[in-house]
């Protein structure tokens, strides 16, 4: 690809592989740096019962609602959460280039946070508000650590998330669409009726909701 | 086992989509892996309302017992530093399922070709030594061109020749590992650039078909391949009427 100044610019490939990365062998210093970065990017899930230092049985959970992204988190704050019916039971501490969360549970709507709430009247109902961005390499870890703490039999998981309308692929132009609108994806095992149409191909879901 | 490498233009992956869609293959499993970027959507090969609601993720396995064919489709890029663990896991899986042969569909940057490669066919093949013994002769009959090795230090003569597949993703790693582990692997690749790579996918899948004869290649082999419904709208939505 040539530019106006005459230098050749390598076009980024959809294949997504960084050529430099694979050509070089790792030196011990590289390994050390990589290990340090990996440690820094590790996710910690802290549950309220861990404060006493005791290990706990897997959490019995019947319904788990996860809100990912600021819009979904705000939806839960505005319509579902209140301090009377819900109590904070956990927090995720993580760091990446886009955000850092802390272990404080007293958060402002503009902060980046990831908190877990439990319905006081039915402690098997769990809710997660995740307004921070969980990076690609942290998503699997988040998944394993959060779901690893719960007993998954008869567990129903609902994931709430938002995407820009401009990303929606459709025959017509997105300008003429009545937005916002809802679309859903569900597993075979989910037998209840869904409240909105299913997401059609070629649209896909990425990042933490996909994980 | 037929699989793609995530490579320039995603040509291997597009070609695999054509194979799965045309042969109407059944999904038999998936890879639960932390090495690929997560994604999920509904059935990309749906042909009707009824079969459109099966979820599909980033690494899935399909099979066609009548042709003893197993296909792995990879739908997202590798997470940084995770391509090596993925290759290791993949090759140990290949060995554990006692797969006879692996065919890897890939591509390489067209702009990296040398003068000789610019002429003639943009398609190349590679065979591991174990497979060379079995099918090397067939490749010669088909008049196929083997991927050339390049000088390790271009510009300096008398240096060792090495295999170099720029833009090929994990192709070189999988191939060299298969050579050393005695796995029968063939690599089929096309030189191409980023852009509308659908024609490249057709060329590559027809190349594959010359050898494996997955579909009858009649007068116009390209028309025999079925385009999956998920290939719609690859280059954007409809235009807003207000534009005019």
UniProtKB/TrEMBL annotation, chain A:
Keywords: Chaperone. The keyword NADP does not apply. GO terms for molecular function: proteasome binding. The gene is Psmg1. InterPro entries: Proteasome_assmbl_chp_1 (IPR016565). One of its GO terms (cellular component) is endoplasmic reticulum. GO terms for biological process: proteasome core complex assembly. Belongs to the PSMG1 family. The keyword Transit peptide does not apply. It comes from the Eukaryota. This is Proteasome assembly chaperone 1.
From TrEMBL, chain B:
InterPro entries: Proteasome_assmbl_chaperone_2 (IPR019151), Proteasome_assmbl_chp_2_euk (IPR016562), PSMG2_sf (IPR038389). The keyword Protease does not apply. GO terms for biological process: proteasome assembly. The keyword Chaperone applies. GO terms for cellular component: cytosol; nucleus. Gene3D superfamilies: PAC-like subunit. Keywords: Chaperone, Nucleus, Phosphoprotein. It is found in: Nucleus. Its main location: nucleus. Belongs to the PSMG2 family. Forms a heterodimer with PSMG1. The PSMG1-PSMG2 heterodimer interacts directly with the PSMA5 and PSMA7 proteasome alpha subunits. Chaperone protein which promotes assembly of the 20S proteasome as part of a heterodimer with PSMG1. The PSMG1-PSMG2 heterodimer binds to the PSMA5 and PSMA7 proteasome subunits, promotes assembly of the proteasome alpha subunits into the heteroheptameric alpha ring and prevents alpha ring dimerization. This is Proteasome assembly chaperone 2. It comes from Sylvia borin. The gene is Psmg2.
